[in-house]
Amino acid sequence: MALAIEGSGTGIWDRDVISGTIRYSAGWAEILGYARDEISARVEDSYGRVHPDDLAYVQATMQDHFEGRTSVYEVEHRLRCKDGSYKWVLSRGMVISRDEQGRAQRMVGTTADITSTHLMAERLRQTTNLVANLTNKIPGLIFESRRAPDGVARMTYVSSGIGEIFGLTAEDVAISTAAIHDRIHPDDRAMYHASLDASQRDLVSWQCIFRVDLPARGLCWRQIDARPARLPDGDTLWHGLVTDVTERMEMEQQLHDLARLDHLSGLANRRAFLERMEKTWSALMQERHDRVAVMMIDVDHFKSINDRYGHAAGDEVIRHVAAIMCSVLRSSDMTGRMGGEEFAVCLPGLGLEEAGRIGDRLRAEIAETQAWFEDIAISLTVSIGIAPMLPTDRNGEQVLARADKALYAAKQAGRNRLAFAENTD
């Protein structure tokens, strides 16, 4: 047994507690670079080779074993070598003889060189710290997430960015990701889960942009990019990044809104108005609206205003009409500038009679006020054509054509008036 232990690079020691001496094997001395006869047998000398920072711990552990508080003695510590350097060792031992009062008399054990293991552990610790520091410095949340086939998921690693991204801690998601799901905007949850399910099912990249409602910041946009891998037990593991894309999404929304806005009037442009008309027509077809009326509005003699006062004055007239439309119409009504001096209004939930009353009020308000350009007061009137949206219409533009025809009739009848579409079949 001794030969086998020696051959493994482990040294043997035998301590006589009564006399205060220790005998070492040749292999033990070799660990520290000594020949066997160069090692003192005195216990005091053995403690002198222990690193000062480890000495109290080693002595306390030894004393606990002597007094029977532990079944074995086991401790990792540093020993000084012959050349003055230190090695990490693992010492194990056991009292094999006690007197009648239970006091330790003899103890034997082994010492193994674990320096390489400690160096490897230290390098691993440094690498782990480096990775953690890097991931914690990267904007956003770096994560590892594990999801079982039944959909139960947990975060097995998260960087410190989880606080900024979700307003949570690592402990909040270590057992379940439910805390994250609770913060996703209700309108985005179905889409979020559908994209996650598809990634798990097909092992495709998980990409998702969604909104979260954070206690400290309110509504924010988040983007997930992660790659999945199937584990032997059937779970799916993702490694990925969650970033804050609030600024980008808000900018995109602003650009989208600008592309749909008529900059002169501040109303929806022709394209945006027609898109909303199509949605209203679809709602009528699905019986979510029982009736819808549409107006076409045109500024009377607009060319004369431009010719007399200039195009800048004409622009002020357009803004003046748009402002009165916004003040008279309901918040649920849709308004748009169709081009030049022509405007359109969609009135969901109103029939021709109610639309006529609103149209006449709008016409009267414009006729009774003046648009100001510099110090010039410009009087103006509008003509209005009104038509109902019908279930038989093929699309939203068909009703606009009827309202436009009614508008032409109003102009033909003398302007500054409204007219209704004749054919409502």
TrEMBL record:
Residue stretches making up the PAS domain: 1-69, 150-203
Lineage of source species: Bacteria, Pseudomonadati, Pseudomonadota, Alphaproteobacteria, Acetobacterales
Record domain GGDEF: where: 290-423
Superkingdom of the organism of origin: Bacteria
Listed InterPro entries: DGC-Regulatory_Protein (IPR052163), GGDEF_dom (IPR000160), Nucleotide_cyclase (IPR029787), PAC (IPR001610), PAS (IPR000014), PAS-assoc_C (IPR000700), PAS-like_dom_sf (IPR035965), PAS_fold_3 (IPR013655)
Protein name: Diguanylate cyclase
A Pfam family it matches: PAS_3
Domain PAC: 73-126
Gene Ontology molecular function: catalytic activity
UniProt xrefs under NCBIfam families: GGDEF, sensory_box
